[in-house]
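chain below, 218 aa
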Amino acid sequence: MSKTLRFTKPLLLSAAAAFAITGVALAAPKADLNQDGQITRAEFRTEANAKFNAADTNFDGLLTKDEMKALRVKKKEAKEAKRFSKMDTNGDGALTPAEISEAKEARKAQMQARRLEKLDTNGDGTVDDAEKAAAKAARQEKRAERKEKRADGKSKDGKRGMRGPKRDADGDGVISRAEYDASTEALFDRLDANADGVLTKGEGPKHRKGRKGKTRGK
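prediction:
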């Protein structure tokens, strides 16, 4: 009997998750329907609406906890199946140690290339001391921003608040279409840092400092 270890189809999800060999897609987000590099409010609404419809399996216009959990599980399984398929280079429905090792090396090389691209601000193919110092300063700034965000996210009783707008506004355990739509609009406004009606790369809550009180156009 061959001693070659193989991760077969029944272990598809656990193997893919355990080794976490993934490729990060560089394409524009799903919400960018026309793939122009920016997301309009209309595109944002369309994508949000599609997510609601996918979760509302009984078509009653309400999202229950079970429906939302089922959708999360479905998405997780699809994502992990995609990971497995990418690792299974010969398409036989099993993962050999060689395929796993190859995927690890490819992932490692990909991460190194991205790190170089991020740090090499002058594009000369190397990372000098000045670029390292700038990267370190940027990391420290991000840590400070996260710390500030955590502090801002705490409620009066000291507990950390929810991220982003609350979907179940009335707290009845289900999310109605009206609640979902309202939170979608609030989330878009929260992300649209410059209030121009479109989302571009880099926009988000951290870019909204010092803009309290500024009105937004709908």
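The first strand starts at residue 38 and ends at 40. Residues 1-28, 155-163, 205-218 have pLDDT under 50 and may be disordered.
thats it, cya
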